[in-house]
Amino acid sequence: MVMATALCTTAFAAKGQDGDVSAGHAFAREACKACHMVEAEENAPRMIAIGPAFRDIAMSPASVRRAESVAQISAARPTPAIPKSQFARIRAWVNYGMTAAQVAAVYGVAVEVIERILSQS
User: Fold this and answer.
1) CB 96 within 8 A of CB 54
2) In 3D, which of 34, 33, 29, 27 has the Cα closest to residue 11?
């Protein structure tokens, strides 16, 4: 609704310019410069850098070492039960690149528990 109002207002304001190119250019500079290049000498619009893929982060040596150390520590503790409702999420994480040790660290269980869940179909 707000966008439609803004477009209608802009259209009527532009119609009222009576061919004044400099007024139209000034309007474009103000209204469009956030996303578009209006002046020839301006820099290109901002580009958003995309970070590394989750798989690359999850498989980095530091992430794997951290998950394995947490999993080893948690293996000594009593293992909490993971509800069946979480099994699909665990499989999805592994499909996306997490190791069994990393998933075990999330749930605070031994790696063997996650491996057993993964072996069930």
Assistant:
1) yes
2) 27
Tokens of 43: 């820099």
Residue 82's CB is within 10 A of a number of other CB atoms, namely 19
> What is the model's pTM?
0.39
Question: Which of these ranges, 65-74, 82-91, 106-115, has the smallest mean pLDDT?
Answer: 65-74
Please tell me whether residue 71 adopts helix, strand or coil conformation. helix
CA atoms within 13 A on the CB side of 85: 1
45-73 b/e with 16+ CB inside 10 Å = b?
A: eeeeeeeeeeeeebeeeebeeebbebbee
Longest dimension (CA), the chain: 80
Residue holding tokens 């707000």? 2
Angle between the N-to-C axes of helices 2-15 and 21-32, in degrees from 0 to 180, rounded to the nearest 10? 160
9 phi and psi angles, rounded to 5 deg: -60, -45
